[in-house]
Here is the input.
Amino acid sequence: MRIDIEDLHVAYAGRTVVAGARLVAAEGEITGLVGPNGSGKSTLLRTVYRHLKPTAGRVLLAGTELREMTPLQSARHVAALPQERGSDFELTVREVVAMGRTPYKRAFAGEDAADRDVVAQALTDVGMAEAAGRRFTALSGGERQRVLLARAFAQDPDVLVLDEPTNHLDIRHQVDLLVLLRAQRRTTLVSLHDLNAAASVCDRLHVLHEGAVVASGPPRDVLTPALMAEVFGVRAAVVDHPLTGDPLIAFDHRAAADEAPTAVPLETPTRG
Ligand SMILES: Nc1ncnc2c1ncn2[C@@H]1O[C@H](COP(=O)(O)OP(=O)(O)OP(=O)(O)O)[C@@H](O)[C@H]1O
Here is the structure.
């Protein structure tokens, strides 16, 4: 199912933080949202998983406006890993993941064998099967993250909305998560701070800056040294990853773009 975001405006207490954003998350693709702190990534994602209502504009799911669906209907299609990582569940890991099955249950209906299989598979997918009986609140940040991701998988959605899913994860679990997302082949809209992870996992990227999409396209076209300087304020070169051939962004950790000895963004360095 594809997502269309058209001329989206979102405000908090009258302050507009997303102003005219447009993007498409194509069916079965991984669409990345990148941008500086406060650029509106989480806010935009919150409208897709219906935590927030737009002040103007539309969010369409396979051509139908989300707000024309009941929350139950949209929950059968869209699952989220929100930024709010709910630390207050007095539940076991398994019970948290089983919450993902709620949109499919009639009131007070119990779990059936199919639900149990889906929950078990989701826990296995995120490498948390052995923690099924542990209390959610006793987990580390990265472990909680993986359990909440399993809850989203258990919802068996057409569309996954993931806000910073690699936050808190060690590098091995970051890699595992990105491999898992690729294998899912679901429509995925994901915000990422790690531009190298975004470059390797996303089919298309949208760059948010001050609440608007300022660049869209395949990672190699979007993540240029000029964009890195203009939008993120850093100096960077883009080279080919020696193992994968993906774009690899090499940041200059010694100087911001406006402190650099030359204002001209670096060209890809020659090798040899
Ligand atoms: N609940 C809220 N109430 C009021 N303002 C908010 C709220 N959440 C976010 N904002 C403001 O909206 C703007 C966009 O925030 P948002 O969290 O969407 O940005 P972001 O791109 O996800 O940032 P980050 O990279 O830091 O996570 C910021 O100025 C932020 O302070």
